[in-house]
Structure formats: structure tokens, C-alpha cells
Here is the input.
Amino acid sequence: MFVLRLKKKRFIICIAAVLLVITAVIFLANADLTPVADFTEINSESYSLKAKNNAERLSFFQQAGINVTNETADDVFIPQNFNSVYNEYNELQKKCGFDLSKYAGKAVKRYTYSIDNGKVAVILVYKNRVIGGHIASGIYGEEYLPLF
Here is the structure.
């Protein structure tokens, strides 16, 4: 017969270690480890993707040569499985150095700005970094244009 004897101090240390391991497993299982870049390179030009506040978002548009005003924001969800419309939209994003497939199933912030010529500029932000965007006429059904 095998008998395991633990002193009170060792027992408490063992319980603490088990709880620490369980906590670490739970944390890692729920952690969002999706990487987000600080910069992207398009046509040999480096662009900052930082978008923590309005000043950084305006700076992003200035890099692209777009003058924007009147910000609105809302939350959107990038679907886990892309349909044909989202695949087409992601192809537009890839032309600008973005790829939304990395963010499938994630909730992101959508910022919409007015542009001088009556169009709107939209950026998608995740973890305070621009992960996508487009220019639109604001008329439903019309094609989106790339930011760059």
C-alpha cells in the first residue's frame, strides 16, 4: 500500500501550483494573440497604422493624401467565414497591404469620415491599429475604392 504524506506547507504549495497552472491555461485559452502591425509598406512607402486616438487616425489619412472631417464610429464584426462579398472586399484590402482574414471572428471599430469631394473614407481599427479601409461614394451598391 502506498501512502502519500504531505506536510501542511507542502500541501499549500502544491495547491497553489495547481491553481496557477489552471489560471495560466484559462488565460491562454481566452487570450487574443492576433498580431497587429504598427506599419505597412505599399509601393515602397511605409505607412503608420497607429490609430489609438483621433490625432493618429487623422495622421493616417494625411499619409494617404486624404483630407477628412466629421468622424463617426461604430462597432462591426468581421465574420468567421467570408462569403463572396467579403472575399471581394478582402481582395480590395489586400491591394492596400491589409488582409482581413487574419481578423475573422473579431469585433473591430469602424471609423467613417467625410471627404472634401462628398465621398466617405472608412477605416477598420483593431487593437488601436488600422487593419483595413476604403473610400466610398456613400451610395449603396457602388464600388469601394482602395485607400492607397
